[in-house]
Amino acid sequence: MKKLRVTIEGKAYDVHVEILDEGARNAPTAARPVETAAPAATIAPAVVLAAPVASAAAGPKGAGDVPSPLAGKLVSIDVKVGQAVAEGAQVATVEAMKMNTYIFAPKSGSVTAVLANPGDGVEEGTVLLRIA
């Protein structure tokens, strides 16, 4: 057994960890029962991750859809409906954690729709605009 300290969201927990690989080469292979109950003070709280929630603007993705690569605030849409864009041209900017992420056109074409406005909060995968 090894005693470790784990910090979760600023709160420290002392935990006991059994190292299963130590001495495995020299130990017999017979099965032995494992005690599953542990004192309440040594169990860290479980972290539950929720499944991502689809945004209302995040419908089925088409070939010309330009989705947000991450959740954040839409800083700018750098193109207008009807504007021709080249593949790789910057079309939008999303801010997350005080850092800007630039979004580039996945293909050449013409902007057919702008589906989000600067200042909007967007989820990962939200379609920002369409290029045909």
3D architecture notes:
With 132 residues, the chain is mainly beta. The protein folds into 2 domains: 41 residues, no CATH class; 67 residues, OB fold (Dihydrolipoamide Acetyltransferase, E2P) (Beta Barrel), CATH 2.40.50.100. Helices cover 0% and strands 39% of the residues. A 4-stranded antiparallel beta sheet has the order 3-10-8-5, with no helix packed on it. It has a 4-stranded antiparallel beta sheet with strand order 7-6-4-9, with no helix packed on it. The termini are far apart.
Give structural attributes:
132 residues; mainly beta; OB fold (Dihydrolipoamide Acetyltransferase, E2P); 2 domains; 4-stranded antiparallel β-sheet; 0% helix
Summarize the structure.
The protein is mainly beta and 132 residues long. It has no helices and ten strands.
Q: Mean pLDDT, as a whole number?
A: 78
Sheet-strand content, in percent, reads 35-45%
> What's the arrangement of strands in the largest beta sheet?
3-10-8-5
* Structure summary, number of beta strands: 10
> Given the C-alpha coordinates, what overall shape results?
elongated
User: Which CATH architecture of the largest domain would you pick?
Assistant: Beta Barrel
CATH top level of the largest domain is: Mainly Beta
Largest sheet, strands/sense/barrel: 4 strands, antiparallel
Looking at the structure, the CATH topology of the largest domain is: OB fold (Dihydrolipoamide Acetyltransferase, E2P)
Count of all domains: 2
Total helices: the number is 0
The unreliable regions are 47-59
Radius of gyration: 25 Å
* Helix and strand run: EEEEEEEEEE
Global structural class: mainly beta
Query: What percentage of residues falls in helices of 4 or more residues?
Result: under 10%
Distance between the termini: 61 Å
CATH homology superfamily name of the largest domain: RNA polymerase II/Efflux pump adaptor protein, barrel-sandwich hybrid domain
